[in-house]
Design goal:
CATH superfamily of the largest domain in chain B: Aldolase class I
Helix content of chain B: 40-55%
Number of strands of chain B: 15
Structural class of chain A: alpha+beta
CATH architecture of the largest domain in chain B: Alpha-Beta Barrel
Oligomer: heterodimer
Strand order of the largest sheet of chain A: 11-10-16-7-8-15-12-13
Shape of chain B: globular
Distance between the termini of chain B: 31 Å
Strand content of chain A: 35-45%
Largest interface: A-B, 28 and 47 residues
Largest sheet of chain A: 8 strands, antiparallel
Strand content of chain B: 15-25%
Structural class of chain B: alpha/beta
Number of strands of chain A: 33
Strand order of the largest sheet of chain B: 7-8-6-5-4-3-2-1-9
Order of helices and strands of chain B: EHEHEHEHHEHEHHEEHEEEHEHEHEEHH
Shape of chain A: globular
């Protein structure tokens, strides 16, 4: 065990985590040239395209140092705020962390919050200044930031470049020298921490874990603490580029288990695996049920695709337990599902995976958070769909989820970011100067306010430099109203939102204007109205098409004109019929986006 | 009964809106006429022995050909196809080609209908679209045709021209009515890809007329011509009672028709085909005896149904529901009626006796209606 090192990498998106990891794998000969598809760790297509890690991964390397052989376990972590719980479990499985900072960009919010998490778990931090080969690199300045943040010495910071390979050998040495070996008793009752799971269509769910105490042997009867379910450990092993089966895995090491589990719901990140015969006294601390933060309706464009959609979502859930769903119906959109997501990115990813992997074209409705409604009769109702809101007269009060948001920015943008946060009902908690011209702003804000375009707008007003992270911060009472949208007098339930009363007028006006742009002119006038209860607060009219006539069939050229009309009809097929009005699919999601 | 179309691709200059295949090079006229005759020989079975009821020489500009050249073409056509009972023989002319002598010549060829491409009675507008005649020439040409004994005259007009106002369009309509011709075709300008007009508009040099004004112009057209005794028997065609173009009608009542010459279209009920549009290649292929100078589209039931919807609904006569059911079957009939429901209820379609047709209101948005009834 003294020759095992477990570590993760903490880095902001694009700071070069994956490239640096690839270099480590190369230098330890874990992957040989031909297997080295750029960025080995991001193995979902979607991950490579977006340059982010969605799921955690793990990989083991062998490293010879001073005549001794070391086992290095790199536990990769997701790189987006939506997945911060997964990050915390990965961190909990490690004894050290590489803090990778881009020498041209400096420290970002995401990095800081993950770093704090690592420090809380007593991880040894190895600061690395990456991308030193870039012309825009400011090594001294960024080193100052790191020193301020960690209180480390300048010479402890390793300068490296994932691209050129500079400094990568120093990193490997530092991993062995500075990170402590894991502690744990191989003979104690078994205690393994699950930090991730993946779905394999042939073998079922594969759980990744770190053995904290005890030894797991192939064929053991094991129990998962949170679910209470028992399984036979059909196959256990370690993770290289592929899975390599082993007879046993002992305290301190990282491995995988295959035990015929069919659905990811039975394997919860943060859960503890122990033996049925000789169970551990208590589960590893820190386990939480993952709770969706954002909810939206997901509907098939063609109503007859409902069952296909169900089958597709069920399959997605097999390898993504954080996705929740239940059937619901909408007057406007027919039958579909209310899905719960970890955040907006997660929602986009699910929508894209439905399209790519299952060829399911869906309409996603306006997303919202989960509200807690206290009725006058004293009941508490959790509402995650505006249409589920009890009648106004029955409501005593409504609470909405709040978050603590951290924004790190250059001081140049502080004014406009404060204006943005204020507009989003944010309350400034504190502001800390990190170094020179970098400042961290801490806000308490309603989660609902960042659900939509907060992140995009933050990026745009700071020219991409501000970074953002958040954590749940309880529930607070709010004055919320249900804002309805009506097309030709008919309420479109899929466009209803719950919003703070102060925002209702602006939002209603904006939605009407936006819909006017998004809905094409049709053969009759279309009235678009926003209303709170019976009170109309905004109105726009889409004038009817006045002329839609093709002049002439040149010299009997019927085919050409027919094809034009057939194309016109094809175009309509991608619209959703609401009452008599045809609404393009994109209208449902774009209606809330600000310009 | 069948119809014969002959395409003459030559023009003295190119109109700014035209994406139609025409050539301003005169060099290979003789070869072209030879190719036309050869094509007739090659395709003499196409009309299945049905006698030709209408002949139409279109373009391009047929009046760019001499009377002798036209005679050669028509004589050959009559020797290949059964032209013993032709009722209507139309030639398209350009106003500046019209002379007493030329019209006399046409008469001698049994031409009994002339379609004249006037487009506008304003010289500014004519210049914008690069027509080579003037308004005065157009008026004189109509008079000339009539005094030489051809009274079945059709005028082509265009509206929605860049810079055109509703008042200017009203002038054009007034002038048309004063000429007392029995037939008017009026087309709303469309910006076709690759034309000079489209380039000028996308380059911001010309401003297209907005949709509302265009709709007003269409409305005015219908009002004025109907007040003057014309019937809108098809979306773009107006005629005094009994003076509808027989040839045009064959395009929308499933008559067999053969189109000869570069880019000409043919229809034999099972398929549509169209000749290669490049004149030089057309001549080469036909004269070398190659059999690949055209493309064919075979028509399945749905496609024939779509054509039927589109062509019949464009006419005042409308769609014969009994025919729809007997020719296309119960399924397509129900499909059509189901899709027509909403238009019937909001007054864009109407049913009279057994006929489904566009209402006055429906004509303005006919593309949307026809496409909705189509099977895609």
């Amino acid at each position: 065990m003294k020759n095992i090192r477990n570590f993760c990498i903490i880095a902001h998106i694009d700071h070069g985590k994956s490239t640096l990891a690839d270099r480590l794998l190369e230098l330890t000969k874990t992957v040989i040239g031909k297997d080295l598809q750029a960025q080995v760790l991001d193995n979902m297509d979607l991950e490579r395209e977006r340059g982010i890690t969605i799921k955690s991964h793990a990989i083991q390397m062998d490293y010879n140092y001073n005549g001794e052989k070391y086992t290095l376990n790199l536990i990769d972590t997701p790189g987006h705020v939506d997945f911060s719980y997964e990050v915390s479990r990965s961190i909990a499985a490690c004894e050290g962390a590489l803090l990778v900072v881009d020498a041209s960009q400096g420290i970002q919010a995401q990095t800081i919050s993950n770093l704090y998490m690592a420090i809380e778990h007593d991880l040894e931090i190895i600061p690395i200044l990456n991308k030193i080969d870039l012309p825009g690199a400011m090594p001294e300045e960024v080193e100052d930031q790191i020193i301020d943040l960690l209180g480390c010495k300048r010479e402890e910071i390793i300068r490296a470049s994932g691209k050129t390979g500079d400094g990568v050998d120093l990193i490997l040495k530092a991993i062995v020298e500075r990170i402590k070996p894991p502690v744990g008793d191989p003979d104690a009752p078994l205690q393994c921490l699950i930090f991730d799971s993946v779905f394999n269509s042939f073998r079922g769910i594969i759980a990744y874990f770190k053995v904290v105490n005890g030894t797991m042997k192939s064929g053991d009867l094991v129990k998962f603490a949170a679910t209470g379910k028992e399984y036979l450990a059909d196959e256990i092993g370690i993770l290289r580029l592929d899975m390599e089966p082993r007879k046993s895995i002992s305290a301190g090491n990282v491995g995988y288990i295959i035990s015929g589990i069919k659905t990811s719901r039975e394997v919860k990140v943060g859960d503890t695996i122990t033996h049925v015969q000789r169970p551990c006294e208590k589960a590893i601390a820190g386990f939480e049920e993952v709770k969706p933060m954002v909810f939206a309706g997901v509907y098939p464009i063609e109503t007859e695709d409902f069952e296909n959609l169900r089958a597709s979502i069920e399959k997605l859930q097999l390898n993504d337990a954080s996705l929740t769903f239940q059937p619901e119906s909408s007057l406007a959109l027919g039958f579909g599902f209310r899905c719960g997501f970890l955040g907006m990115l997660h929602m986009e990813i699910i929508q894209e995976r439905l399209d790519r992997e299952f060829n399911m074209d869906v309409i996603t409705t306006v997303p919202n958070v989960q509200y807690r409604v206290y009725t006058k009769k004293g009941d508490i109702v959790e509402v995650h769909n505006p249409s589920g809101l009890p009648d106004q007269t029955l409501i005593d009060k409504i609470e909405e989820p709040y978050i603590r948001a951290s924004v790190i920015t250059s001081t140049d943008y502080i004014g406009s970011i404060m204006t943005l946060c204020l507009g989003k009902r944010g309350e400034l908690v504190k502001q800390d100067y990190i170094s020179g011209n970098r400042v961290e702003l801490i806000y308490n804000m309603p989660l609902a306010e960042i659900v939509f375009d907060f992140y995009d707008r933050l990026k745009s007003i700071s020219k991409g430099y501000a970074s953002f992270d958040y954590h749940p911060e309880g529930m607070r009472e709010s004055k919320l109203v249900k804002l309805d949208v009506l097309l030709n007098g008919e309420p479109v339930d899929a466009l209803s939102t719950l919003t703070h009363i102060d925002n209702a007028y602006g939002l209603g006006k904006h939605m009407c204007e936006k819909l006017k742009e998004l809905i094409p002119r049709q053969q009759f006038d279309i009235a678009i109205q926003a209303a709170i209860g019976a009170k109309v607060i905004s109105r726009e009219t889409i004038k009817a098409v006045r002329k839609d006539v093709t002049a002439k069939c040149y010299g009997g050229d019927i085919s050409r004109k027919r094809k034009l009309l057939e194309k016109q009809k094809q175009g309509k097929k991608r619209m959703k019929q609401i009452g008599s009005v045809e609404v393009p699919q994109k209208a449902f999601l774009e209606v809330l986006k600000l310009d | 009964m069948s119809a014969l179309y002959i395409h003459i691709p030559y023009c003295a200059s190119r109109c700014a809106y035209c994406a139609f295949y025409s050539s301003t090079f005169e060099g290979n006229r003789k070869d072209y006429i030879e190719a036309l005759c050869r094509e007739m020989d090659l395709r003499k079975e196409y009309l299945k022995g049905e006698s030709v009821r209408t002949i139409y020489l279109g373009g391009g500009t047929p009046s760019q050909l001499t009377i002798g050249e036209l005679e050669a073409i028509l004589n050959h056509a009559c020797s290949v196809f059964d032209c013993s009972s032709v009722e209507e023989l139309t030639v398209e002319v350009n106003p500046d080609d019209v002379t007493d002598e030329y019209v006399q010549g046409l008469r001698s060829l049994s031409v009994n209908r002339i379609s004249i491409g006037i487009q506008s009675f304003h010289d500014d507008e004519l210049k914008t679209i690069n027509r080579r005649h003037s308004a005065a020439q157009a008026i004189e040409a109509v008079a000339c045709i009539k005094r030489n004994g051809i009274t079945n005259v059709s005028i082509d007009l265009m509206y929605g021209l860049p810079g055109q106002t509703l008042d200017l369009w009203r002038d054009n309509l007034q002038q048309t009515i004063q000429l007392e011709v029995p037939h008017v075709s009026a087309y709303s300008l469309t910006y076709e890809e690759g034309t000079r007009l489209t380039r000028l508009v996308s380059g911001g040099e010309l401003k297209p007329v907005d949709e509302d004004t265009c709709a007003d112009m269409f409305s005015l057209l219908r009002e004025q011509l109907s007040a003057a005794g014309y019937v809108q028997y098809e979306i773009s065609n107006f005629a005094k009672p009994g003076m509808e173009s027989k040839h045009n009608s064959s395009y929308w009542n499933e008559t067999l028709y053969i189109g000869l010459g570069a880019s000409a279209h043919s229809f034999n009920r099972d398929s549509r085909q169209w000749n290669i549009s490049n004149t030089r290649v057309y001549i080469e292929k036909v004269l070398s005896g190659a059999n690949d100078f055209f493309e064919v589209e075979h028509l399945d039931l749905d496609t024939r149904y779509n054509d039927y919807v589109m062509t019949t609904l464009r006419t005042r006569k409308g769609m014969d529901r009994a025919h729809l059911k007997s020719a296309f079957g119960e399924t397509l009939y129900s499909y059509c009626m189901e899709n027509a429901k909403s238009f019937l209820s909001n007054g864009l379609l109407e049913i009279e006796a057994d006929t489904l047709r566009l209402t006055e209101k429906g004509i303005f948005v006919s593309d949307g209606i026809m496409s909705e009834l189509m099977k895609v």
